[in-house]
UniProtKB/TrEMBL annotation:
Keywords: Transferase. Residues 8-126 form the Glycosyltransferase 2-like domain. PANTHER family: GLYCOSYLTRANSFERASE, POLY-BETA-1,6-N-ACETYL-D-GLUCOSAMINE SYNTHASE. This is Glycosyl transferase family 2. GO terms for molecular function: transferase activity. CDD domains: Beta4Glucosyltransferase. The keyword Transferase applies. It holds the Pfam family Glycos_transf_2. The lineage of its organism: Bacteria, Bacillati, Bacillota, Clostridia, Thermoanaerobacterales.
Length: 356
């Protein structure tokens, strides 16, 4: 039976004066209370927060995101808890969906997942997304786990919604997470498989490829990782080997992925690119076409581009090299359906039309 519920918005913040107003303005009409936990701001963050709530709490930063998030959850008083970061926001259409869900809610649900849109195409469609448990039943007392790249441990009845949370990063905090991991290493704290995975991601992002390879392999060899993270790791491993110029190891890793699961769009695109680099056009076409046909993952990190516009723009290149201008143009038009203002797509369109 559906009913109306109340929602506490819980956030942890530090020096978020550039984005906090946007975030809270976008979500305030869907929530009944706003909890702001400040971990040491020295800018106007608290003044901005005061425009929306008087429930502002200080929490001493101890290099542990879970500790801060769990503290914020402890201050909630409503039926359900929604969490956001300061550089997140909700677009009007998704706000309406959230309000409708709130007013017609199945109270047997323990957690609601929402899509987290990390990047968008030129026309605003999601390009890279992950799925997060965003709205959780307060009475369940769910906890955050992990000092960094923390996760919310939930169980029970999960509802997968189509509501989207947008990520609109403004400031760069690129060293923060890797520094926390390295403090953990210095203090000889044990790494969980999840820590290995996310530390490897941080190392790869910082172009410390040899170290990233070590931790990706440690994570995979632990045999305790989530399948989606293992497949993601294999793709990132291939990128690391390519960056180091070890193309044999890159290829070995790419084909090894098929031992774990059927081909995924992102790995198909990597193989398509490998064969395109080698000027093996027919093989490249096979993998790029497969990327558009295989089942798209709906968990973990999902690079939507690899099943939509990206393989088609690469197929445009492949068919041009084969001298098939009509097929080249056709695939560029397919890419344009997904990403109509992509500069490369528009450049291809003008060039191919001049030939046709």
């Amino acid at each position: 039976m559906c009913q109306s519920i109340t929602i506490s918005l819980c956030m942890i913040v530090k020096n978020e004066e550039l984005t906090l107003d946007r975030c809270l303005t976008s979500i305030k009409d869907a929530v009944d209370e706003i909890i702001i936990v400040d971990t040491g701001s020295t800018d106007l963050t608290k003044n901005i927060a005061k425009k929306f709530t008087d429930k502002i709490f200080d929490f001493k930063w101890i290099d542990d995101f879970s500790a801060a998030r769990n503290f914020s959850f402890s201050k909630a008083t409503m039926d359900y808890i929604l969490w956001l970061d300061a550089d997140d926001y909700v677009e009007p259409g998704d706000l309406e969906k959230l309000i409708d869900l709130k007013n017609n809610f199945d109270a047997s649900i323990d957690s609601v997942t929402m899509k987290y849109v990390l990047t968008k195409t030129s026309n605003g469609s999601p390009s890279f997304v992950s799925i997060r448990n965003r709205l959780i039943k307060r009475a369940k007392n769910f906890k955050w786990i992990g000092a960094v790249h923390e996760y919310l441990e939930v169980y029970g009845k999960i509802y997968d919604s189509d509501i989207q949370i947008m990520h609109g990063k403004v400031k760069n905090t690129s060293n923060r997470n890797i520094e926390i991991y390295e403090k953990m290493i210095e203090s000889k704290k044990d790494f969980s498989p999840r820590d290995m995975f996310y530390y490897a991601n941080e190392l790869a992002e910082h172009k410390r490829y040899t170290e990233a390879i070590q931790y990706y392999n440690m994570f995979i060899d632990s045999k305790k990782g989530w399948m989606e993270d293992i497949l993601y790791s294999l793709g990132k491993l291939a990128d690391c080997y390519e960056a180091l110029g070890d193309l044999d190891k890159r290829d070995e890793v790419l084909f090894k992925s098929f031992e774990y699961d059927v081909p995924r769009p992102e790995l198909c695109c990597r193989l398509g690119y490998k064969f395109l680099q080698e000027n093996k056009i027919k093989q490249s076409i096979f993998w790029y076409e497969l990327a558009t046909k295989v089942e798209k993952p709906n968990q973990g990190f999902v690079n939507i581009a690899c099943s939509t516009w990206l393989p088609h723009i690469q197929l445009c290149i492949c068919y041009y090299r084969l001298g098939d201008i009509e097929k080249s143009y056709m695939h560029n038009e397919e890419a344009r359906k997904y990403d109509p203002n992509n500069p490369m797509v528009l450049q291809n369109k003008a060039f191919l039309e001049s030939i046709l």
